[in-house]
Write a structure and sequence with these properties.
Elements lengths: L1 H72 L1 H5 L6 H18 L5 H19 L9 H12 L7 H8 L14 H11 L3
Length: 191
């Protein structure tokens, strides 16, 4: 009988040691998995930040051409008292298309949406204005609004500035209105 008790106690000890060993190994595995998940998350965040920095640098390089086009053919044209006519629309459209072919891949969604609206308006003016006639004032005003403030008080110029950090050093400017708020809330799982 003593042999049986000794065998049972020994078996219980081995079983207890196996359970403890299993629990310790499981705890270490969970800790390792958690550390690995944190490391992956940290590296992914670093990669996203690096990508954002490179994209912002590229936008700082290419947006000035588009900004120059909308400035030259928008407010500057208006201040110089030049005619908004077929020649203006031809030249402006050519400048817009050239900017898009060189840099369109770097446009943010907001910039591309405003750019597309602007291009469509200028193209409409070109296609619907006789060579010697002035462009329809309503459509010219629409072009100027797209550049300045058509989208919830913002325009193409503002979107480009926002993409490049605006006038604030060290941070990107994000205006909390419109579709970008809905996109950010979806990405964060809020609302």
């Amino acid at each position: 009988m003593e042999a049986i008790w000794a065998a049972l106690i020994s078996a219980a000890g081995v079983l207890g040691a196996a359970v403890v060993s299993y629990l310790v190994a499981r705890s270490r595995t969970r800790t390792t998995e958690k550390q690995l998940a944190e490391e992956v998350s940290s590296r992914l965040h670093e990669l996203e930040q690096s990508q954002l920095l490179e994209l912002t640098r590229k936008r700082l390089e290419v947006y000035p051409d588009l900004y120059a086009a909308i400035s030259d053919y928008g407010r500057s044209w208006e201040l110089r008292g030049k005619r908004f006519d077929r020649r203006w629309a031809d030249e402006f459209l050519e400048a817009l298309l050239a900017c898009n072919s060189r840099a369109g891949v770097f446009f943010s969604d907001d910039v591309y949406e405003a750019y597309g609206s602007l291009r469509d308006q200028v193209e409409w003016i070109r296609d619907n204005t006789a060579h010697d006639d002035e462009a329809d004032e309503h459509h010219v005003n629409e072009v100027l609004a797209i550049i300045r403030n058509k989208f919830d008080g913002r325009g193409l110029a503002t979107f480009m500035k926002d993409d490049c950090g605006g006038f604030r050093l060290g941070s990107l400017s994000v205006r909390p209105t419109g579709d970008n708020v809905r996109r950010y809330k979806r990405a964060l799982g809020v609302g």
